[in-house]
Design goal:
Elements lengths: L7 H4 L5 H14 L5 E2 L11 H12 L12 H15 L8 E4 L2 H12 L5 E6 L4 H8 L3 E6 L10 H7 L4 E7 L11 H12 L5 E5 L15 H4 L7 E6 L12 E4 L2 H14 L5 H12 L3 H22 L14 E5 L17 H12 L1 E2 L1 E2 L8 E5 L4 H16 L3
Parallel strand pairs: 1-10, 3-4, 3-5, 5-6, 6-7
Antiparallel strand pairs: 2-8, 7-8, 9-12, 11-12
Helix pairs in contact: 3-11, 4-11, 5-6, 5-10, 7-8, 12-14, 13-14
The protein binds pyridoxal-5'-phosphate.
């Protein structure tokens, strides 16, 4: 039998860094090590009871068949009402695509629009999956460094400099994974002014963390800030993060009808539709009582304050308070060049991460996985006890460096 050779789209991409980190934590735990795990990118809360009940009711009512490719009328109505509430913008059912998570929406949107050599602008630090999704779909990621000096945000000048005739997409993510930064209305308007002069560029705005923010008012969506661009914005969201529904796998995209029709054409061949049960649950989440979301945000806020204060008090580490999502992106440049007790020199954020795992049993993800070095990302979607124990263990390990 001939040996299996993966397709070039597979060899082009890396395995997900967060999936790899989770696998490493599982392996160490299986060996009996107690690990303080700050890698997890999902809420540690259970899905709300009324959402589970809606899923059970759907099963019992026999809603167990294929649905239309863009979802049940109930889910479509819930998405449209939710988007209207969040952004003030009225869309119609023909603007909707749904899939097994926001992740799949993004993948299929790229698949529906990229030809070989098309460029996709990705501000760094970025969610780990964007560049690989672009590569898997024959595109070319154009990474634009957006360091701490720029508040980890894309500036209009940097955007203008990155656009070429081959640019097909800009991907924006606010609130951001991994930094927790949120673009203001003015910042979005300034980016939109640049985009208005480049009509070939579509914008994918990944707003999966929009409900999890710690500022006044709500996160401003690009569709709200840039009405002139609305016919080329794909707004991506889902129920995973706000409603603690990562395992239900339900995300949606909302955007121009022609793009959405292409995405749905592919989606019809990929999976026909996401689970009918998850659709019923997502409809209940989006249209039901929102107290759960508000309560979670308050818990995340307390944990954020604990983690940010704790890590900032450790010499050599610093971070700015996250404005949204449940991550903090910690600058560890102060540890580079130091020696571990066993003589090893810490040369990169990957060395920092390995050292913290060895010496403090704390698992975090290196900033280099998100396109910016030397940082590490922590998730505060975990208990205050685990966060406090992690801060204490990291402080001890850092104090042992020379
Ligand atoms: N976008 C960002 C920025 C994320 O961090 C994640 C999950 O970690 C996703 C999208 C994927 O969300 P979903 O569970 O809806 O696929």
């Amino acid at each position: 039998m001939s040996e299996y050779q993966p397709a070039s789209r597979v060899t082009r991409i890396k395995a997900s860094a967060s999936v790899a980190a989770a696998a490493k934590v599982r392996e160490l735990k299986a060996e009996g090590r107690e690990i303080l795990d700050l890698t997890v990118g999902e809420p540690d809360f259970d899905t709300p009871g009324h959402v589970k009940q809606a899923a059970i009711a759907a099963i019992e009512a026999g809603e167990t068949k294929y649905t239309g490719v863009s979802g049940t009328p109930e889910l479509q109505a819930a998405i449209l009402a939710h988007v209207r509430r969040r952004t003030g913008v009225d869309y119609t059912a023909g603007s909707i695509t749904i899939a097994g998570g926001a992740k799949q929406v993004i993948f299929t949107a790229l698949m529906a629009s990229l030809d070989a050599g098309d460029e996709v602008i990705i501000p760094a630090p970025y969610w780990v999956s964007y560049p690989d999704m672009v590569l898997a779909n024959d595109g070319t990621p154009v990474i634009v460094p957006c360091g701490a000096d720029r508040g980890f945000k894309l500036t209009p000048d940097a955007l203008a400099a990155a656009i070429t005739p081959k640019t097909r997409w800009l991907i924006l993510n606010s609130p951001s994974n991994p930094t927790g930064v949120v673009y203001s209305r003015q910042e979005l308007e300034a980016l939109a002014a640049v985009l208005e002069t480049h009509p070939q560029v579509l914008v994918l705005t990944d707003e999966i963390y929009d409900e999890i923010h710690f500022g006044d008012g709500s996160v401003v969506s690009l569709v709200e800030a840039a009405p002139a661009l609305r016919d080329r914005i794909l707004l991506v969201n889902g129920v995973s993060k706000a409603y603690a529904m990562t395992g239900w796998r339900l995300g949606y995209g909302i955007g121009p009808a022609a793009l959405v029709a292409s995405i749905n054409k592919l989606q019809a061949q990929i999976s026909s539709c996401p689970s009918s049960i998850s659709q019923a649950a997502a409809a209940a989440a989006l249209s039901g009582d929102q107290t759960f979301v508000r309560d979670c945000v308050e818990v995340y806020r307390t944990r954020r304050d604990l983690a940010v204060a704790g890590f900032n008090a450790i010499p050599g580490l610093s971070c700015t308070p996250s404005e949204g999502a449940f991550y903090a992106f910690i600058d560890c440049s102060g540890l580079i060049g130091k020696n571990a007790p066993d003589g090893r020199v810490i040369k990169s954020d990957q060395d920092v991460v390995l050292y913290l795992l060895d010496a403090a049993s704390v698992a975090v993800i290196p900033g280099s996985a998100y396109g910016l070095d030397p940082y590490f990302r922590i998730s505060f979607a975990t208990s205050s006890e685990i966060l406090q124990a992690s801060v204490d263990a990291v402080r001890q390990a850092v104090e042992a460096l020379r």
